[in-house]
Design a protein that fits this description.
The protein contains 21 helices and 22 strands. The strands form five sheets. Strands 1, 2, 6, 7, 8, 9 and 20 form a seven-stranded mixed β-sheet that branches. The longest helix is centred in the last third of the chain and has 23 residues. The N and C termini lie far apart (59 Å).
Length: 621
């Protein structure tokens, strides 16, 4: 059989693989997307939701850069919520419950509509490598397909083992076989590999749940979107529900601990710290008499339910008996039990900041193969790997986002410079510039960069220009218009805000912490008339930018200081061992990580401020 030679081959069609294929294809590469099953392209293996704390920011960033995850989410949304609204806007995080089946279908149809993307359904069990550079892939049938670059996005499939109690099944996901051959080949080439584990809860029959016993969790009245394109806005929503475990439930779960693969040593890989199994929760938090469970729909037209918070690898009979002790679940039926899955990953310190491996040229890793967890973390890595795989085939400089540019930059910088020995999940607390990296301004931060790259973002850029103009118009009116005391004092007193005694600029009033722009507009006709012509999300973004201007300026000053270190380049072949003034640990870590700037060197674990001073002195700074 004769195959075309491709520019980029993407192995795996999960969230990372789909975004990698789209990114490279949109830049002009001829892409082959390979998967073991065409029916599972873009499948939500675990929770049918996108976004969440810090993750929602990532989805917005992926969209701003021309990715598709935000578009697919908007088209398949069941419910929308903006999390952390009680906190400052740096913490606001959009989250959407999605229709699992529609999500995968939308991804596949969008990919199939792209003229630069071809597909091949078969296990890839080897790479073709010549003279230290990847040249293609080898399939389980022995077919060789050539390419200029390869992106591996294998998810949980590399030598995956599913654990349910004392039972072990080879597989990368329920009902799907594991991928073999790639780990062994890469280890033979000198790569370091390790094991991680993740888990998923049982799926339930919604017809067997006593819904009136559960708390209802409605979506937000004010529904937003993830994409900056003209995607549809959600018109109706499905509710989620909340249930609780009890001491009886915990006691029943404990009866299976002696058969738990997590407690008897059969699972060697480390699981996610921030998304523990139910047995791990009741073991680590023995003082808690109950744990909250989120009962989430899987789609508009299915009765299948996802029990968020009840991830488990206990024997199926123990899971079932424990479920029946939850109020509202007395007659519950399971579609399938929860399980844990153990799989190979490659510590990401073996990569460059463009996600290319150091040992093999033009070979890129993205997603759970790098030790991360979560659809959003995988998607953004896939996007960046796809962009950089294309650029590698064109001998162009890599595209790298700084920590001050995006949560994507924070994630990749953390992985490459610090590594991870447990599934890495993004949080707002990981970003030191989170006032700059808000969910409302991802387009302003990143879409101009995407346009410069050559991504297909013309629609997004047009909207961004309109959004920037809207903020300028609002600022101009606020700075040029003064409120008379009689216009606003009654309102100010109603919200316990000090009245004004003389004309005061609207800009100064808006900076008061308990005053929002829409309330102010009710008192000032000129402002009301302007806001009436603008989209609500543009107004909100402008208000945040204006109210938090002082904090934003301070963070930008910090960024400028850090960028001075980023501007001090280090040769890729620099010999750190010749600098005896560096600590022994610093010489070892710097030699292993090979930072390209002093700024990057400063973020490597084990490299102290005094070591950075030595580097700066040597570099003449």
């Amino acid at each position: 059989m004769i195959f075309h030679k491709y520019d980029v081959i993407v192995v795996g069609a999960g969230h990372a693989g789909c975004e990698a294929a789209v990114a490279a294809a949109n830049l002009g590469s001829k892409v082959l997307l390979t998967t073991m099953n065409m029916e599972t392209i873009g499948k939500m293996s675990c929770n049918p939701a996108m976004g969440g704390v810090a993750k929602g920011q990532i989805v917005r960033e992926v969209d701003a850069l021309g990715g598709y995850s935000g578009i697919v989410t908007d088209y398949t949304m069941l419910q929308f919520r903006m999390l952390n609204l009680s906190k400052g806007p740096a913490m606001w995080s959009p989250r959407a419950q999605c229709d699992r089946m529609l999500f995968a279908e939308k991804w596949r149809l969008m990919l199939e509509a792209h003229p630069n993307i071809d597909f091949w359904q078969e296990m890839i069990n080897g790479l073709i490598i010549e003279n230290g550079q990847v040249c293609g892939v080898r399939t389980s049938l022995g077919i060789e397909i050539k390419s200029k670059a390869v992106v591996l996005t294998n998810g949980t499939f590399l030598n995956g083992i599913i654990h349910i109690g004392e039972k072990q099944i080879g597989g990368g996901r329920a009902g799907e076989s594991a991928a073999k051959g790639i780990t062994e080949q890469l280890v033979g080439l000198g790569f370091e590999s390790a094991r991680m584990k993740t888990g998923t809860p049982p799926r339930l029959d919604g017809r067997s749940i006593r819904w009136e016993a559960l708390e209802v969790q409605e979506g937000d009245e004010k529904v937003a979107k993830f994409s900056y394109t003209d995607t549809p806005k959600l018109q109706k929503q499905l509710p989620c529900h909340i249930a609780y475990t009890s001491q009886k439930v915990h006691d029943m779960l404990k009866t299976g601990f002696d058969r738990s693969p997590m407690f008897n040593g059969r699972i060697q890989g480390l699981g996610p710290r921030y998304c523990p199994s139910i047995e791990d929760k009741i073991n680590r938090f023995a003082d808690k008499v109950q744990h909250q469970l989120f009962v989430e729909p899987e789609g508009w037209n299915t009765c299948e339910i996802y029990l968020n918070g009840f991830s488990s690898s206990l024997p199926e009979d123990v899971q079932y008996k424990a479920l029946q002790l939850i109020e509202g679940f007395e007659n519950v039926k399971m579609f399938r039990p929860g399980y844990a899955i153990e799989y190979d990953f490659f510590p990401p310190t073996q990569l460059n900041l463009n996600l290319e491996t150091r040992l093999v040229k033009n070979l890129f890793f993205a997603g759970q193969i790098n030790g991360t967890t979560g659809y959003e973390e995988a998607a953004c890595q896939g996007l960046m790997a796809g962009i950089n795989a294309h650029k590698a085939t064109q001998d162009e400089e890599p595209f790298i986002l700084k920590r001050s540019d995006a949560y994507i930059g924070v994630l990749i910088d953390d992985l490459i410079n610090k590594g991870t020995n447990e599934p890495y999940r993004m949080f707002t607390s990981r970003a030191e510039y989170r006032i700059l990296l808000r969910q409302d301004n991802a387009d302003a931060r990143l879409t101009p960069l995407a346009e410069k790259l050559g991504m297909n973002v013309s629609e997004r850029m047009e909207k961004l220009k309109y959004k920037i103009q809207a903020e300028q118009d609002i600022r101009q009116l606020l700075n040029s218009t003064q409120a008379e005391p009689e216009m606003v004092n009654d309102f100010l007193q109603s919200i316990d805000s000090a009245p004004i005694s003389q004309k005061t600029k609207l800009h100064k009033l808006l900076t008061r912490p308990n005053l929002d722009i829409f309330s102010l507009a009710k008192c000032v006709p000129a402002l009301h008339n302007l806001l009436d012509t603008l989209p609500a999300d543009y107004i909100e973004a402008a208000e945040i930018s204006i109210k938090y201007e002082g904090y934003i300026d301070k963070e930008q000053e910090q960024v400028a200081k850090m960028n001075r270190l980023e501007d001090v380049k280090i040769s890729p072949n620099f010999d750190f061992h010749k600098l005896q003034s560096l600590s022994a640990e610093a010489r070892e870590k710097l030699t292993k990580t090979r930072p390209l700037t002093v700024g990057q060197a400063s973020r490597i674990s084990g490299v102290s401020p005094s070591d950075i001073s030595v580097l700066l002195v040597y570099m003449g700074r």
